[in-house]
Structures are given as structure tokens and as C-alpha cells.
Amino acid sequence: MATARLDRRGLYRKGAQSLKPMKVLVLSRSYPNSVTELLGLWAEQLVRDSTRFCEPKVVSPVPYCPPLPGPLRAYTRFRRIESRCRHNGIEVFHPRFLAGPGYSLYNFEAALYAAGIRKCVADLRRNFDFDLIHAHFTYPDGVVAIELGRLYNVPVIVTEHIPWDVWAAKYPKVRERAAQAALRCAYHVSVSESVRRTVEESTGQKDNFVVVPNGVDGSLFTAGENGQKRSRNQILFAGAVRPIKGVDVLLRAVRLLVNQGVDANLLVVGEAYYGSYRKEETRLRQLALELDLETKVRFAGKKSPADLAADMRESAVLVLPSRAESFGMVLVEALASGTPVVATRCGGPEDIVNDQVGVLVPKEDPEALAKGIRHVLEHTEEYPPAKLRAHALEKFGLEPVGNRMARLYEQSVENFQSSGAAISRAQGGSLAN
To answer: 3, 21, 66, 392: which has the highest count of C-beta atoms within 10 A?
Structure first.
């Protein structure tokens, strides 16, 4: 059986056919759209970079929502999302699927997702004969991708972005389906060692489990020009404003720093785009008042990646005080900007932060967090921007991360064909139901 191979330009040879780009179907519910512009930026960035070695198209389903009255009208914003668009040069499809509020239909989400995208993928397949499917998140995206792989006779790669221990015990049926998908895909990619460990707790150790981190765009997150001034006292938090991020712990740490005579100001950058997040932001604003920090803390809301990059270049330190973190993309972005970091030992940050680029502290510990921040503020000479940037780009730059993913794409197709796993399309499976 003929095998597939990528050449040095990222072109794909299939049998005796001429060189052509490998075609990849990307499934990712978390992907930027006209309503939630910052959703899944890490996935979009990887897809955009993958155009160096393949031709991707993205199917990113969004919730179906009829016109709703009263307090439920907030959900109708999803009706504004285009069914098809081009985003940064990538063709993206947004079919609708039925989704309940929160996790109310979580056990059935794979079946609903599959039903929602079935026609879109079939129509796309007529003119886009994809060679591989890459799904972001094991459930529901990866579960559906496995069924699509059987149906269209192509290999599947799944990238997992969240630890399983935060949801697996609550949803045993989902855990079972996710575990099956992880075992059946060509490669199951975790974004950090901590994420892989949580997957292995449900599946056992498998040869197809690998770790490939998210990649940082070093052309956007830069260290700035020589002589660009940084604020000596600006502490930056960047991320979704929700309880798991531990901003309340950071506020208490700032209070301790101020009590110690440290001239520290906190800039909180992040969008509270869900109802529960908005409640958390309200709670945090009230906590800042109770801690008498109204002149020391500024909630800046949503910012574009370019504006966030500017904030990183101007800040003395970026702090990620999370209770749990699968990776910690903002840490890598800050380091690429030449800014040292302080983070909690909560999963992903352990893959990123060492003593040369910042400080790791226990989670849920304002005193330890304040001590780590103060160390960085008082020892800036230990963290030269060029060294921080080199660390970020060497391990997490788009090129090295993309090259690793390109090899997985190539190996997936080669192994799929040479092992005889490819079967007649007429014998392909059906979508999840």
C-alpha cells in the first residue's frame, strides 16, 4: 500500500500523485468567532501556523439558540455568528448544534455535536478530501472526530487542553467515552505533563500519548525596543475572570505587599463573558473595596492580543495565581515579552516556570504569593528580558511546536496506511448517536 510523506516544504505525497499540501479537518468548539472573539485563541494560533505544512479547514460548532425573551436574551447573541467565514486566512464553518445551559446536557453533548455538524462535514468533504482530522478537546470534539475518522477512513489526532480530574468523577459516562476516544486516535496529545497524567489515571499509560505544548507567537509577543521603559511596580494578571484563576488570592497578596510598604499596582486584564464569570468579577471588585485596594487595582476588561502584548512589555511581572491550570499560555506570552512570571504549582505552570524565569509558589497561599512577587520586583536584574524570551521561544515558539505537530501528522497518516487500518469507505462507521 502506498504511503504518505511530507517533504521539507511541508508538502504531502500520496502514492504516485504529485506533491500537494496535506488536507486537515480541524474540529474545535473553542475557536474565535464574531461574538466570542477571544475564545480558543490558542487553537486558532496553532491552526494558523499549521498552514506552513498543511491546508486546514475548521469546523467550530456554536450553540443553536432561538429568539428568547427576558433574562435568556443573552444567549441570542450566538445567532449573530456567521455560518461560514474566513478568519486570518482560514476557512471556518460554524454549524449549529443543540446545547443546554451550563452542563445540563453534557452527557449527550457528543451526540448533539455530531448531529449538528454531520451535514456540514459531508458537504465540505465533497471538495475538501481531508487526509486527517485534528480535534481539540477529547470530549465532545475528539469523540465525534473518532466517528468521523471511521466514516471517512482517515486517522485522527486529539489534543487535550484540560485536566480530566476536574470533571471525570462527576460524569462517568463522559469519562468512558473520552477514554475510548483517547485510546483509538492515532495520537492523543496533552498540552502539559500534568494533563497527560490525569488522562492516564482513566486510561493507563499508552504509546500514543504524547505531550506537545501550545505555541506562542513571538512576532506579536516581543520584548520591545531597547530602552523601552517598564513600570517598576505594575503587576499584571491576564485571563478569564473566573474562580479557578485565583484572582481573590492575588488581591489578598497585593494587600500584604502594600502593608509591607511595597509600591504595587495590579492590572487585571480579562473578559467576564459568561454569566458566572460576571458574578465573579463583581465579587472581586467588592473584595478589592473591602481590602481598601480601590486605588491599587484596575479591572481593564477585555483587550486584544496586541494590547495585551503591550501590557506585558510594560509590566514588571505577570502573575498567574490559579487553583488549577492545564498549561498557562499567558506565562509563555509574558516570557516571550521579556517579563518575569510568578505562578502557582497547579499543573501546567510546572512545565514552563523555573528559577531562571520566575517563581513558583503553592496555590491558595497569599503570603507565599506576595513573597514570590516581592522577590521578582526587588531582583529584576536576575531576569534579563533576552534570556526570558529565549527560554519561551526555544521551548514554546510556534516553529518548534508546529514542527512537532507536523511530524505527528505525517506519522499518523503513514502508520494508518501501512498498518492496514484504512478500510473501505463503504465500511466506515456512523456518527455518534
So the answer is: 392
